[in-house]
Amino acid sequence: MRNAIISLYQPSHLASLIPTMQSYAESLSLNVSNAQEEEDIDFSELTLRMAIDVIGKTAFGVEFDLSKHTTSQKSHQNHYGDRDEVSGFLNQHMYSIETLKMDLSSSFSTSLGLIAPVLQKPCREVLKRIPGTGDYKIYQNNRKLCKRIDAIIAKRSNERTHDPKDFLAAVLNARERGAGEKLFSHNYIRALTYEQLLAGTKTTAFTVASTVYLVSKHPEVEKKLLQEIDSFGPRQVIPTAEELQNKFPYLDQVVKEAMRFYTASPLVARETSRQVEIGGYVLPKGSWVWLALGVLAKDPKQFPEPDVFRPERFDPTCDEEKRRHPYAHIPFGIGPRACIGQRFAMQEMKLALIHVYRHYIFRHSPKMEFPLELEYGLVLGFKRGVKLRAIKRVLNRCSMRI
Ligand code: HEM
């Protein structure tokens, strides 16, 4: 299956996505500029809108139009449907992400599964039919979400293309070419499609928002970052994919350090396909193994003073970086099932950060809690958003907008 879509993540295809990604980065910046004086911006909501739009367009071939028109323009119509339709979709998607928790605040069946895994499935089967329960709400929400995704798939199935530019078209083409109904059953395509939305939106949005949150608390980092971005060239010059990779070494360090500080996907799981020995423990076939990327990222042996935000620790010339174990920092996972969207995400995040920092710097709103409160799940979230105030950059000086 990975083979059917892998070409969409190759450098040549990613380079062709720059104009699309840039247009949503510009919408993000426009939404920042729309804020009134002394108005707090929920930056994490804006980055989520951007990330959903980017995946909508590049993976589904659909314009969700969430970032181009924020909540103040409710009457706007878009290509996907009307505004209520889109906000319904967004709400269902958000609810679905939020309920992907693995703690006692999740549904009863999930909590029960933590103590007695064998009871989880039968318990869920019963509770999902009882209105008022968490399991019922999740089930109903997922049903509605599936219906919306099915509608997108049905629409795209009728559009034939020989040169698929998005994920869904590539999957539908592979089915047409004879990969067969068996492999690409309807449910499987739906699950894969939703996986893209799930895996590629909150992770990217969270990382962009947490990077800006951290940079705005560290003026020395901000100064260095702005110098790098400004010295690249005039604001209107959009970096190419190659320039994004080679001309922004400090931005790379800042994003890596932000991902270490707040690891968007703190846990990844594997099931052993045979008996293995790990660290002296023998695990029988079929055991679940959880790798805690977020814990690795705070290991003081690999990252001295792990609670200090210091992008320079990722400078390739510094001793700390040279000494570090090659697998100490793996926010995109590792091995054959590692994140397929890593390059995609880096390209999108760097374009967005370059664009917003060309026009703004940010300070925490007085309402921003400290320390930052996080919501733990398969993907990390912000409990109360990232509330910032923007300062418009004018040529070489900064003029306060707040
Ligand atoms: C900052 C952004 C992102 C982070 C931190 C992230 C992180 C991860 C991690 C940790 C995994 C699990 C890897 C493992 O099990 O070893 C994963 C899997 C995956 N990611 Fe990402 N991801 C990001 C963005 C994206 C984007 C933008 C896309 C799609 C465009 C994407 C698509 C996927 C898919 C499809 C998988 C499952 C791969 C498989 O099972 O073969 N991710 N990601």
Can you give the helix content as a percent range? 40-55%
**CATH C-level name of the largest domain:** Mainly Alpha
What pattern of helices and strands is seen along the backbone? HHHEHHHHHHHHHHEEEEHHHEEEEE
Report Rg: 22 Å
Bound molecule types? protoporphyrin IX containing FE
Mean pLDDT: 86
Strand content of the residues, in percent?
Answer: 5-15%
Largest sheet: 4 strands, antiparallel
Structure classification: alpha+beta
Q: Return the domain count.
A: 2
CATH structural architecture of the largest domain: Orthogonal Bundle
CATH topology of the largest domain: Cytochrome p450
Number of strands: 10
* Alpha-carbon distance between the two ends: 50 Å
Poorly predicted parts = 71-82, 398-402
CATH superfamily of the largest domain: Cytochrome P450
Note the overall shape.
Answer: globular
Count every helix, treating DSSP H or I runs of 4 or more residues as helices: 16
InterPro entries: Cyt_P450, Cyt_P450_CS, Cyt_P450_E_grp-I, Cyt_P450_sf
Family: Belongs to the cytochrome P450 family.
Binding site for heme: 339
Pfam families: p450 (PF00067)
